[in-house]
Structures are given as structure tokens and as C-alpha cells.
Design a protein that fits this description.
Layout: H1 2-15, H2 18-27, E1 32-33, H3 34-38, H4 45-57, E2 61-66, E3 69-74, H5 77-111
Antiparallel strand pairs: 1-3, 2-3
Helix pairs in contact: 1-4, 1-5
Length: 112
């Protein structure tokens, strides 16, 4: 479980950056070479490569090199784990808010 928590922390950290989210969004359309991924961003290639390294470290992307071209592709499994965590949190808070609503309705009825 602690290893899963570390992995989840890395995924959320990676998704916390708008450049990395844009890369994930683009890779959702299919694999792409580094040059294509970097093109929309106004940053030096070494800086952009740090973003790709962060995404690869947490397992959100995978790369392969063919000749001189490095191509990245999305790995959906870590996104599914993050989604599962968020759904669990939403369910927990919905239950808590429903309980609060019930309590407030009871208090209102007592006042009458």
C-alpha cells in the first residue's frame, strides 16, 4: 500500500503542471515524437525533457527510441489509479454532505 501511495503522489505531482497535463492530453490522441510534443511550448528542449522525465518517472508515459527519434506514448494505468482515488474521495464527501443535510433537516424539524 505505501508503494501505491508513493506512485499516486508522483502522478498527482506530475499532473499538477500545465505543461505536463497538455502533454498527457496530446498523447491521448496517440504516440508522438519529442519534437512534436515540444513544438507548442516556448521553452528550451532540455527544460521540456524534464517534463517528459517527470511523466515517465511516475509511469504516465513510456518512451522508445528508433534511430534518432524518441517517441512517447501514454500509459493509462496510473491515470486510472488516480481516477479511482478521486472517485473514492467524492463518494466519501457525498456521504458526509448527505449526513449533514439529514442532520440539518432534523434540526429544522425540531425547531417547528
Amino acid at each position: 500500500m505505501p508503494n501505491q501511495q508513493i506512485q499516486l503522489d508522483r502522478v498527482f505531482h506530475a499532473l499538477g503542471d500545465p505543461t505536463r497535463r497538455a502533454v498527457i492530453r496530446r498523447l491521448g490522441q496517440g504516440p508522438a515524437p519529442v519534437g512534436e510534443l515540444a513544438r507548442p511550448f516556448k521553452m528550451a528542449l532540455p527544460s521540456f525533457m524534464q517534463h517528459l522525465a517527470a511523466l515517465e518517472k511516475c509511469g504516465l508515459v513510456r518512451s522508445r527510441k528508433t534511430g534518432r527519434v524518441r517517441t512517447y506514448q501514454l500509459v493509462p494505468k496510473p491515470l486510472k489509479a488516480a481516477e479511482k482515488w478521486m472517485v473514492e474521495q467524492r463518494d466519501l464527501w457525498e456521504r458526509r454532505l448527505d449526513q449533514l443535510d439529514d442532520y440539518l433537516m432534523q434540526m429544522k424539524e425540531k425547531e417547528k
